[in-house]
């Protein structure tokens, strides 16, 4: 049914079509895009390492549960540092996602060469050039989570403009794209530093429900707000009512109900994902990818629900043999694998402390190569990567991209976590204001980005915006978002949701 003329969003149907029936891009292009993000962050750290920050601020150690070191700044110095972060990290990313999208691969190689040159130059003659240990690894993990959040915040608005290449937007059924990595990366990032991975005692069910309740509330709030303003929602992404927050809440609750020790969670997670893939091959994928929807809540939200767990709920469909599936899941299996990876790579088994950074670097590289090899084999021999069904190829794709080590014939490029670990070779490096600010309010930053995205869509017809207007809007949006997040950090505002 067409959207009424007097609707808040008269072009809703056109906007939904604009993000439908997309097939994604090549894995190599995604590798190049994902390379640019951590490399830009490290280039900024190279500029930070000259003592500029320490000269403008008296630094104090003030740890407040979030392991972020807060410095004492003058507002003028802080704003100057924020502007520099914006120009060196945010603005280049926006250009790579829009007007420079055809040059991303070349830019990624050139930026990596520049980074290696700067690291070599700064290490030459430095008396202390290598940082290793708990603080270094903690910083790298935080930067990894921030990089995921920054890319997500930029893409959720950029995708509504024609200046954003359609191959970067979420795929309809099968394929790989930049935005396909979003929800999987969030699930994996949470699992790597979860209570289970750190070896802490699990929360009781009541406490787990209380801890996850903010995510449920946010999911309901998003559902009501999008319906209230008739906001465009691509039903094939999660379903009619399901959304990103419900997925995170469901994984969190499921992991609390079923307590698996970290040393066994990877094995169980792998078995769950493989079992889920068997279900998909035997007919479940036909049901999930079909346009048919019943009137019941399960059929209305089949993509979101079945990506979390598969039970005999699906036996009511004519596509699925009755009583042929028990309990499998895509995102939960991914989460369990991430828990064991976090425990194995970053945390000690007996002590709840971070491992040596050198110890982790080698294993991150080896594992990411193995996951990439597995992704290619599964994509070609079993079933193509599908974010919509969260199949086994998508799970390994997310794992490979987030722990990636990609080796080309010209240059070895360690990516995401592995690239960020190169920061240890930058003498006296300091994390940027952007990293501190977003790390302090990760989920709040995402909520703010969603609100700003909705406001822009209500007041600007993004489909008909020229390239110049689209780029200007995206720059202003990114600047306002970063400014508000940065000021919240400057004034010590912290929103911890769980």
From TrEMBL:
Q: What is its main location?
A: membrane
Record's keyword terms, sorted: Membrane, Transmembrane, Transmembrane helix
Q: Which GO terms describe its molecular function?
A: glucosaminyl-phosphatidylinositol O-acyltransferase activity
Transmembrane among the record's keywords? yes
Keyword Hydrolase among record annotations: no
Transmembrane parts of this sequence? 27-47, 68-97, 103-121, 142-164, 176-194, 240-260, 267-289, 328-347, 359-378, 403-422, 442-460, 466-491
What protein name is recorded for this chain? Answer: GPI-anchored wall transfer protein
